[in-house]
Amino acid sequence: MLRFNNVMQELNLEIVKLQAAGKPIPESLRGKLTQMVDESTPLNVMMGEISSPESIQASTAVDPAICRGYEGLIEAYGGNSTGVVQAHKNAECDQGSLWTRYGEAMQAVTRAFQEQRITREDVDQFRVMDVQIGQYSTTNLGKACEILAEYESQVSAIQ
Question: Taking the CA atoms of the chain, what radius of gyration do you get in angstroms?
Answer without folding.
Answer: 18
